[in-house]
Description:
ATP binding (chains A, B, C), Hydroxyethylthiazole kinase (chains A, B, C), hydroxyethylthiazole kinase activity (chains A, B, C), magnesium (chains A, B, C), alpha/beta, 8-stranded mixed β-sheet
Amino acid sequence: MKIDLLNQIRETNPVVLNISNFVTVQDVANGINAIGASPIMSEEIAETDEMVGISNAVALNLGAFSKPQVDHILAMGKAANAQHKPLVIDPVAVGAISYRKKVALDLMNQFQVDVIRGNAGEIAALAGVAWDAKGIDAGSGNQDVVEVAKAAAKKQNCVVILSGETDVITDGEHVARVFNGTPLFQLHVGSGDMLSSIVGAFCAVSDGDYFEAAQTACLVFASIGQIVADQLKEERPGTFAARLMDELHLASVADIEKIAQFD
Amino acid sequence: MKIDLLNQIRETNPVVLNISNFVTVQDVANGINAIGASPIMSEEIAETDEMVGISNAVALNLGAFSKPQVDHILAMGKAANAQHKPLVIDPVAVGAISYRKKVALDLMNQFQVDVIRGNAGEIAALAGVAWDAKGIDAGSGNQDVVEVAKAAAKKQNCVVILSGETDVITDGEHVARVFNGTPLFQLHVGSGDMLSSIVGAFCAVSDGDYFEAAQTACLVFASIGQIVADQLKEERPGTFAARLMDELHLASVADIEKIAQFD
Amino acid sequence: MKIDLLNQIRETNPVVLNISNFVTVQDVANGINAIGASPIMSEEIAETDEMVGISNAVALNLGAFSKPQVDHILAMGKAANAQHKPLVIDPVAVGAISYRKKVALDLMNQFQVDVIRGNAGEIAALAGVAWDAKGIDAGSGNQDVVEVAKAAAKKQNCVVILSGETDVITDGEHVARVFNGTPLFQLHVGSGDMLSSIVGAFCAVSDGDYFEAAQTACLVFASIGQIVADQLKEERPGTFAARLMDELHLASVADIEKIAQFD
């Protein structure tokens, strides 16, 4: 893994354009900012081309969308493709709500995604694999998560990140796994949304190797979460959220290399 | 009070569906999550039936709504009734803004609410009692708050929570009062919104006894706030907000029983 | 500077009405609340006149707007003028996105603003001065920031705050500068949005002297940020955000006078 991509983010401050869901948007903006990139958010379709033009990566979050937002997401995805900017999708709750799955699949037929990040329930839904998702949570299933992720990657022809206790990252052929992390991520709503946009920041400095960018983003984010968790004596989700921002800014490549566990 | 309902939330992780106002939505989601339930938010009317279907309670926040959101709130309330899911309403600022009062009363004519949670100014407005509300704050009035709450409960035929230094909970006949709490709740915007959605989580595990659920939710939330306040030497609203999430996750039934004050 | 205006806010709790961008709205509400004023937010044009009526100042944030929100912003600005309430504008990213600049200038042709607060890139755009803005960040330019701010103030016929390492406040003739602050403000998204709404709170207690209100708001906010930064051994953006709320509530006029640096 090229953990050094983290330094490239901090040196070049890539602009990451987001359509964020309204639930976690400030956290996502702060996370992008803390790690060293520059967040920008949009709600107006008329500024799409210009917004994509000043950005180095685009991250589209499909949580809590309304119909006008779907049009906006579509325009943003097409503009990202047209302007050759890396495009990351976070398909929130597509495993639990069939309407969201239909909209997400429909959108992904109209533009080419570079990276999809979701939990097991969400990735299973996109792969067409049976899974018992629970609301915004991963739920449970019998399938091997590596196979689920590979199936989704092949189907959508992109890199897939299946987040969980172990993160699985695959381009459909090659597979990387990240073993770092902490259960506190599940206790803080928006951890996944934040990772998705941070994946955008890594894609922006990756020279087009999105498989490398995706796995490095996962390793850096999971390791930083683990660094914070190790500072806490108890499971403190509120304190975790604040310190996660601290360490996204403070953690060095060396700090991460010291604890990194992946294959 | 059945404080043990808290353990039932943690064991069964009920899904609480929210239409949240955009001001406090992340805090509300994190609060639901921290106490042990599972939050989900929606902005799209097309997914209403399905969303209600996967949920164990519905909480509708009437803060900062636009016209399309009113349609969405209406559909959500009707679906909650049709699918027999407990329904909680938070009528933000209906005491200060007559437009909001009109919309709120109009909505409540079209579906049956199980629990309303508001401050004195908001509950007085729904009861049709004179009160000098101030923006989103409670304001002041001469009426006895217990009588105000009872009048609102009778008028809307539901359980009413009138939040304040003392919380008053009533079904129009019986009255419970919770004396725990801290002034820090007033210093953190969204404390009330969070409580309303947490009431939803308690309703979800209450076997239909919403009066029990409402008073227990108030006792648990107020006590946890007090536990946090007791840890702080000064009034620190930012630190309070973070630690409130910590203790929503950590506080045990025994911790709450130790300080609980109610009648 | 009348730092004592801070005490007047805490004694009279002015209501500050906001159209806030969805990215930072909770932070803005909490910041207004913590400093001692009372925040209220709106998303519905039908409640405009009534909302302005109960408010003591109006703050309009032009970050992340959609077309219906532009109509709402316009109605709010006109109502603030008609009801003689102080009006503050935050023109987010007008330096980077020409669509936003066009909309912002168009709005300001239709109502009279009392105070504009932005970073160098945003103020330069409104002044019609060349500047290399970067997304939501200030970017860089060769012009003297005092001249840029004066040009914008003359053009818009109002007080202008150009925020940065040094804050420049001007009515087009007179200039005040605030030297307090901390780089941590840049590391926390929404610091500027929060300042803009806090300027509204100071305007509400200023007896119409918005130049005085604007510079005092900058001094108080920058000093409180510096107080928090001095408590931290490292750059901790998450901890900074929480403690900023703490100190907005706790810091006294004397605490600020002790470190205030301005001319």
